[in-house]
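Field reference: "sequence" (input) and "structure" (output). Example, hexokinase:
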Amino acid sequence: MIAAQLLAYYFTELKDDQVKKIDKYLYSMRFSDETLLDITNRFRMELVKGLGRDTNATASLKMLPTFVRSIPDGSEKGDFIALDLGGSYFRILRVKVSHEKKQTVQMESEIFDTPEDIIHGTGTQLFDHVAECLGTFMEKHNIKDKKLPVGFTFSFPCQQAKLDEGYLITWTKSFKASGVEGMDVVNLLNKAIKKRGDYEADIMAVVNDTVGTMMTCGFDDQRCEVGIIIGTGTNACYMEELRHIDLVEGDEGRMCVNTEWGAFGDDGRLEDIRTEFDREIDRGSLNPGKQLFEKMVSGLYMGELVRLILVKMAREGLLFEGQITPEMLTKGKFETKHVSAIEKSKEGLTKARDVLSKLGVEPSADDCVAVQHICSIVSHRSANLVAAVLAGILMRLKENKGVGRLRTTVGIDGSLYKMHPQYSRRLHKTVRRLVPDCDVRFLLSNSGSGKGAAMVTAVAYRLAEQSKQIVQILSEFRLTTEQLLEVKNRMRVEIQNGLSKRTHDSATVKMLPTFVQSTPNGTEHGDFLALDLGGTNFRVLLVKIRSGKKRSVEMHNKIYAIPLEVMQGTGEELFDHIVHCISDFLDYMGMKNARLPLGFTFSFPCKQTSLDAGTLVTWTKGFKATDCEGEDVVGLLREAIKRREEFELDVVAIVNDTVGTMMTCAYEEPTCEVGLIAGTGSNACYMEEMRNVEMVDGDEGQMCVNMEWGAFGDNGCLDDMRTEYDRAVDDLSLNPGKQRYEKMCSGMYLGEIVRNILIDMTKKGFLFRGQISETLKTRGIFETKFLSQIESDRLALLQVRSILQHLGLDSTCDDSIIVKEVCGIVSRRAAQLCGAGMAAVVDKIRENRGVDHLNITVGVDGTLYKLHPHFSGIMHQTVNELAPKCSVNFLLSEDGSGKGAALITAVGCRQRQEQNSK
């Protein structure tokens, strides 16, 4: 017993001694975490160089765009063929993806040899061989008569300009077929298939094996956005933001980039960590000076590295008592599979003895321990170097996403990773140490990259079909110039109907006289109170207007909320609430005893008989208070003030918010004769010649007409342009059949149109993995501000995703692209429709004046116009195109319609004084 323990102790001591000796000898192959992080940073710099248009040519990492823009989302289906060429054998698979209860994949595959004389022969021979194998496979499976979509995994660096072409940059991994470098491999394969003439194939995608691995794993885990191969060769790919890939047009979405990281260090960046053994391997390779990183880490070279170390140590008398055999000096005799066998914990030393014996060596126990440790150092170095560069990719993804902690999946394949007993554990451990703020799941690709090629093809097939259908759905929202001219002409007809006494009662565009007959002339002065009611908020303002040389307008205001139950309660409750707010404001300003003139901005259709009397025609914008429609709102306000018995006010004018906006802008710019609101609601007003306003007596001068154009189309004149989504929004609104034009172009409804389109697209399986969430079913979730944010040019898709996720919609990158497109097309149509209406107005004014060319200013207000990144630009462009004889200047009303109400009140007071003094 004691003897056995002594022996064990002696052996442990001996082993430790040998290990220390080897550690010292191979010190340059062992790296600290500091060195590894330095390598990570070097890799990241090369990665950025590879992505840049101006630096790509000199970068060692080629960062090749693959044109794979999406990972599987679970809705793919069909029958596909995959070819997998990249090593000593060639594989063909038939992949059937079906959806019965859940998505299932059936695969049948066959392996064909790739003889050495073919991989070192001509390109014609190689592709004839591939075409022959494919023909054999199709015949065996009785599918020669079918033209199935084919995905081609081609595991060599290719330059791609689209998914179904790939120009070989350079052969790697001992392939050397002549006449292929610089050629499109898809074209070469198609030629070989055509030459045979006994079957057809539709090659939809050529992908790298690394991309195939990512796609295979992406089918099982949709978080997978990195693919790695650590086998005969090594490489990685990952999903990069398109905006960073200078070599590809466009900046929406993501694209898989094939890093070709085997060439990392070809520019000398890794010289300080390469050893004499690495240099010797490179000198004896088929491609000296190339793929230097791959030669330090991949399976093709690992056994050879160990052999070179053994030879040198034996020559120095440190191993095998200095004995060197012819087998030891023969290249390729020590294989990577031997490294894996020797590193097994239990039988490793026995395996070492077997392998060394086959090399003609009589190893001692010391020698076996030493060789095992040499293998361990070489393979550990490989795992550490791969971890360092993978850490660079993970840091990149984390930065791209702007997250504090990254959660992602890495799809991985390759014989070295799979067969070596310690490799995967070492790799995972080092990655977690180098990037502690990344939660990484490593997912082994069990089906190889062939299934991935089929998945790329399936995704390409799905996206092509989906794209066609999305274009079809959205085509109804794309209005031609002819259609917009038709809208303009129909608006002109409706304007005429509203102005004419004979047709006024049946007209949808009511053209209501406002009794505002003059814009400010600059002599107005005094203190005025203004109320502004038109949305969920209600404003009370004190406006101090000073005339003379230093004209000025000073404003104080306070905003009050109007609860939903008040908006939709009784009229008495609504006006009592308004007066309560006025009372609070007068207390706040300390002005309860002053009898101030008041202007009331009331943003709903009113029939006015004078400046201070207006009968509500109909509620809009979600208001539903009872006993108000058909009543004089100034009378309702005066009664509520009387009921309160706290203060007195002189109500001088009731004005629409659109008129208020026009007056505010006219105070700054005398050519302003049109007002436009493009916000929660949509409306316009303009100065019409009195002779055309048949509803009011008198032909002299002008009067501002409140168009109430939101109701344009209520008679069916826009039905040919309304979509099923417009109808759905209208049917579920508070006022079905009313305000149809407004429902197509105002902020209150655009989000609802978008939501209805998204529901339809989700039902069709184009979005959110076909799952309609409770959030998506919720009316009103898409506020205008979200549309404005989503369409902002400054926002990357990542931020669009975070907006959608904030709304409870778990979206992929592809979903975000589609949502952005839907928002864009809906708001574009809104701006065009609004522009067509405005073109009708300015052309009418031009004709009234009898001039060939009109210069005019439009005062504009409203959140949609102010906050949406593209609305105003598209609207201006539409007006220019449809009214080419008018030069229209749009002036933004900075102070809202409250100031306008005060100005109208001031003008009213001025005119009252002028009449009294006559």
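The longest helix spans residues 365-401.
Confidence is low (pLDDT under 50) at residues 1-11.
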